[in-house]
Amino acid sequence: MSLQVTKDHLVQLLTDPDNKVIALSGKWGTGKSHLWREVQAASTDETTKCALFVSLFGLSDIDQLKRKLLESVVPVAESNPGLWDGAKQAVSSGIKVLGAFHKGFEAINDLSLSLLAPALLRDKMIVIDDIERKHEKLGVDEVLGFIDQYSQQYGSRFVLILNSDQLGQKAAWDTLREKVVDQEIQLLTTPDEAFEIATALSPSRFSVHIRKAADTCGLTNIRIVRKVIRSVNRILGDRNLSDAILTRVVPSIVLLTAINYRGIVDGPDFQFVLAIGSTSDIAERIANKDKKPDEEDKRRASWRLLLQELGIGRCDEFETLVVQFLESGQFDASKVTAIVDRYVAETDRMEAHQKAGDFLDRLYWDHRAGEAELLAQADKLVSVAHLLDAFTVTDLDKNLNYLPGGSAIGQKIVQAWIAAFRAQQPETGHDGPYRRPLHPDIMNEFKAIKARAQANTTVFDACMHIIKHSGWDTMQEVAMKSATVEDFESTIKSLGVDDFRPFMRRMLEMRIQRQAYEAHFGSATDRFVEACRNIVNAPDAGRLGTLIKSLFDGAGIEAELAPRAAPMASSGGTEAG
């Protein structure tokens, strides 16, 4: 049941005195305690309004439970003295100190709990929370015995708040439900209800965009939604950002924070998100194109659909920064400022990307849209093609090819982009930690630039971080997994002496102990060895080839540099003669 329906049902159950023990169950963080407080605050029934609340967190025996309940009597009795007159009268003859219990319970330890508890808890409503967080010394059967005794002998009523996904000793709790609980209602909070509660406790000026992304992620844990809101607030601060920029950054913060706090059931990890659209991601999809999907393939396909719905087609340094913040807890506001300021300076570009994204989203999902209407919308993108990046232009052309009459518009977008790109007289093509398929005309343009470029392609800062700092995080793992043979080869050839030494030493160590690194870096050391093999066996290997041979020999793996044997041709018959 949703929050409101569960609330109405609980109110109805509380009006029936025959319901001695009511269990309110649901997943952790979905608002069960919040729901109870709302029901209690709105109730006109004195027993419900004066209910005693106790948490079992850390309690190791029933006497501790009773003592905490008696301590909770004080504030309730002070605000509702009439309700407790009978309890005081019942024990006044035997316990003089009870008449002064409004002043505190310093003397409780000297009194018999067996006298006080029945007198003060008789006919009262008791709410027990955090049952699954009790100390292991406090047995489930002891809790059941207490509830059964006081509900049957002393007329006490109980509301048990249960985190259904964290209860241990399942058999014992099933016994509780069967023999002690009169009614159980299950709370199934919706993402919208969870966000309403969370945003009331943790307001945000970005709530509209956070709500949409949180709903897409299916976040129902109020505590996690609050963490998401706080992450967005801290990262974006008091900036006044356009809708286009918020659409770009908020979904990424929401998704990555939810992943960090395990708020998405069977959801993706950081590596999957950061690698979306990368070489390894594209290669994986191509390799699995004709393969019958197994369970892991299906999971990854569902993750891609989630990212697509969030509008996350690829990641850049902004997502890198969010991951670093979530992993380390350290936050460099200046870096966020630099990225967001760049986005602000490129508002026109951001809005153009949003228009392109809206079109692709509509083309994919809106089956009711007419072809003429879609073509008209696509044609408007030609005028903003110069503001788009090469990958988005490629995606537009590729998808327009599936729309009758769309290929011509796709070509117009591509050629408009190339014309604007040439006008900038760039010295380099595209760069960044990940590469994706590009339109052939765009690739040809980049190749022409590359032929004139002075810079070499290397494995970049991610690989050097691993070498120099003897450690890595998610970003380095993604970069190593994505690095190609060509990346390693060009890096080895371009490094200066001071970088070459630690680079080769660390890579050789990783190769020797590759079993320890494969889980983190995949087949990166295979590609490293292949790059070294190419260099050593090239006609112009020179002194670099000799040096690499020497290093591999010293590491005891010189055999790996041997040229690969060419596959033998099958014989079609015997020679004549």
Explained architecture:
With 577 residues, this protein is mostly helical. It has 29 helices and 5 strands. The chain is 60% helix and 5% strand. Strands 2-3-4-1-5 form a 5-stranded parallel sheet, sandwiched between helices. α10 crosses α12. The protein is globular, with a radius of gyration of 33 Å. The C terminus is likely disordered.
Q: Outline of this structure?
A:
This protein is mostly helical and 577 residues long. It has helices at residues 3-14, 32-42, 46-49, 62-79, 85-92, 113-121, 140-153, 170-179, 191-201, 207-217, 222-236, 243-260, 270-274, 279-287, 295-310, 317-328, 333-345, 347-365, 371-379, 390-400, 406-423, 440-452, 460-469, 474-482, 485-494, 497-512, 514-521, 524-536, 542-555, and strands at 21-26, 52-55, 125-129, 157-163, 183-186.
What is this structure's SSE topology?
Blueprint: H1 3-14, E1 21-26, H2 32-42, H3 46-49, E2 52-55, H4 62-79, H5 85-92, H6 113-121, E3 125-129, H7 140-153, E4 157-163, H8 170-179, E5 183-186, H9 191-201, H10 207-217, H11 222-236, H12 243-260, H13 270-274, H14 279-287, H15 295-310, H16 317-328, H17 333-345, H18 347-365, H19 371-379, H20 390-400, H21 406-423, H22 440-452, H23 460-469, H24 474-482, H25 485-494, H26 497-512, H27 514-521, H28 524-536, H29 542-555
Parallel strand pairs: 1-4, 1-5, 2-3, 3-4
Our estimate of the beta-strand percent is under 5%
Radius of gyration in whole Å, from Cα?
Answer: 33 Å
Separation of termini? 88 Å
> What is the averaged pLDDT score?
82
Estimate the helix proportion, in percent. Answer: 55-70%
Strand order in the largest sheet: 2-3-4-1-5
| Helix vs. strand class | mainly alpha
Low-confidence stretches: 90-107, 453-458, 569-577
Report on the biggest sheet: 5 strands, parallel
Number of strands: 5
Query: How many helices?
Result: 29
Task: Give the overall silhouette.
Answer: globular
